[in-house]
Design goal:
Blueprint (H helix, E strand, L loop, with lengths): L1 H9 L5 H23 E4 L2 E5 L2 H6 L2 H35 L4 H9 L6 H12 L4 H8 L13 H25 L4 H8 L4 H12 L1 H16 L3 H7 L6 H11 L3 H31 L6
Antiparallel strand pairs: 1-2
Helix pairs in contact: 2-14, 4-8, 4-11, 8-11, 8-12, 9-10, 11-14, 13-14
Length: about 290
């Protein structure tokens, strides 16, 4: 530890290339996008500032799209938590000697192209796919379900793709958890649910918060999964931005919608951060 600290102090400029990379390919394009959304640009050049592009999107139609995206992100983050926490608990406390193998199986989908995952789910969810054939073969259904190109298909694919981002931070918190606290709680007469609610969950809320934002924020701007799995039947923030920037070639209008949607996303993220932060602060208060 001391050697690594002393070496980093000897080379204080080691992080400059990464900062330059972020400056060139993140911050400067972001500033240009924000500036274009407030500038009135014509063939003759910049004519001044304007709020017309912002006002264009402050309508019930586009606010409804932002609302759908918020709902998609919240539902996906919640489902990832409900599925991911038990999985992380199993990996941390029950996996034992198979822990590394199970973690490897959790991460291996990232080694293949994302579009391959989507098209593989087509064969699972389509009317003649694996799920419908299985349910019909078991005499549970008489007619196949229409799963593909529906909100259910979008949520299944979102859960599948973002689940590791929830599992890994929670697993990291649980792996460092002092299991003697669980034994003490059970010995004092608490049920397993009381132990989980008052000890395990509060003490791992930092991992839950990290996993929540790792799934919530990118889910808000997701457009590939809704487009492919939903069949363009529902519009989300990512679809609107790609429509203006890639199809219509109106980068300034796309930037204006980015500004509005990011403002709402940051506001909701701060709200959830405060709520989850309050849970962390009150973790030691047991009534």
């Amino acid at each position: 530890m001391k050697n690594s600290l002393s070496s980093s102090l000897k080379h204080p400029y080691i992080g400059i290339p990464a900062l330059i990379w972020q400056l060139l390919f993140l911050y400067i394009p972001l500033l240009i996008t924000i500036a274009c959304s407030f500038l009135h640009i014509t063939d003759q050049g910049i004519q001044g500032l304007t709020l017309e592009k912002i006002k264009y999107f402050l309508t019930p139609l586009y606010l409804k799209v932002i609302g759908f995206s918020l709902l998609l992100a919240i539902v996906n983050a919640t489902l990832c938590f409900l599925v991911g926490y038990p999985l992380a608990y199993f990996l941390a406390f029950t996996g034992k000697r198979f822990k590394n193998l199970l973690l490897f199986l959790l991460l291996i989908p990232f080694w293949t192209n994302f579009l391959l995952h989507v098209y593989a789910w087509f064969y699972v969810l389509e009317r003649e796919g694996f799920i419908n054939n299985l349910l019909i073969g078991w005499k549970i259904l008489k007619q196949p379900l229409t799963i593909l190109y529906s909100p259910a298909a979008i949520m299944i694919m979102m859960l599948y793709f973002y689940l590791p981002f929830m599992v890994l931070p929670i697993y990291s918190s649980l792996e460092r958890f002092n299991t003697s606290l669980i034994e003490a709680s059970l010995d004092l007469g608490a049920s397993w649910w009381q132990t989980f609610r008052r000890i395990i969950l509060p003490l791992t809320m930092r991992g839950v918060r990290a996993g929540f934002f790792l799934t919530y924020i990118p889910s808000f701007g997701e457009f590939v999964i809704p487009s492919l799995m939903g069949g363009d039947k529902m519009m989300f923030v990512g679809n609107i931005i790609s429509e203006f920037t890639l199809v219509e070639g109106s980068d300034s209008f796309g930037g204006a919608f980015v500004v509005i949607s990011c403002f709402i996303l940051i506001a909701t993220a701060l709200l959830f951060y405060k709520i989850l932060g309050y849970s962390i602060q009150s973790r030691g208060k047991v009534k």
